[in-house]
Design a protein that fits this description.
Layout (H helix, E strand, L loop, with lengths): L3 E4 L3 H12 L4 E4 L7 H5 L3 E2 L3 H5 L4 E4 L4 H9 L13 E4 L5 H13 L3 E4 L2 E2 L2 H6 L2 E6 L2 H6 L1 H5 L2 E8 L3 H30 L3 H10 L5 H12 L8 H17 L5 H17 L9 H4 L2
Parallel strand pairs: 1-2, 1-4, 2-3, 4-5, 5-6, 8-9
Antiparallel strand pairs: 7-8
Helix pairs in contact: 9-11, 9-12, 9-13, 10-11, 12-13
Amino acid sequence: MQTIAVMGLGNMGAGMARNLFKHGFPVVVYNRTPQRAEAFAQQGMRVASTPREAAEQADVIISMLADDVASRSAWMGDEGALRTARKGAVLIESSTLSPVWVAELCAAATAHGCDFLDAPVTGSKVQAEDGQLLFLIGGEISTLDKVRDALAAMSRGVVHLGPTGSGARMKLINNFLCGVQTAALAEAIAFVEHSGMDRAKAVEILLNGAPGSPMVKTIAPRMVAQDYKPFFAVRLMSKDMAYAVDEAQQHGVTLTTAQAALDRFRNAIPGWGDQDLSAVVEPLRLK
């Protein structure tokens, strides 16, 4: 079995590491906050103190981190994984990142003698825990073939989208659409509440009519209950939408709806940044 290093034990990386271990892979984990890794040691996984240490004996190195800055530090910092990654190892970047950084990281991996896939996922904490993520892959098919068993342990499927950067770009498209729907729903609920309508009846109409997408059906109950336990944080959605706006601009497309939704998410960061993205409705309730 391939030895797999997992860097990042947040909502997503934790479930990924556990599913790999459950399927028999030797797993080494690293997390910037060491306390979060203690439970993984108790389950039998080896805990590394740095990305560099995590990568030393790994055949596959997976990163699931917050943003470009965290990814750059984990791979290319003074204690970064590329310092010790073995030639021929497969590097899998599953964080939601800018395609510009993904291309730079791929070039660094190639220069080091490693194979590289950008492999962000759809799904959130529940899907990560249940091994039901969907991997969006950019990179060489031959590289993908080397890690299909590992990806299968964490997912319900794998979609190869093309060359390096394709997975990262598709993830930004996916997330900006989710963000637009969530921001629009927040405005709709605020409109209902401020106008004095019966909220329960109005939400039922939205959920069971044409607007009732899977995203809306997931988020609306959280907004109504004001239950903001973080499955995907406001701060992270804001980051993803900003990356999407910038990347689309590189291709001559202005994401006007994404920019408007991004403004809503940025406005919610003070006070709700680390709470679930459904908390984007809260600033609208204060007006």
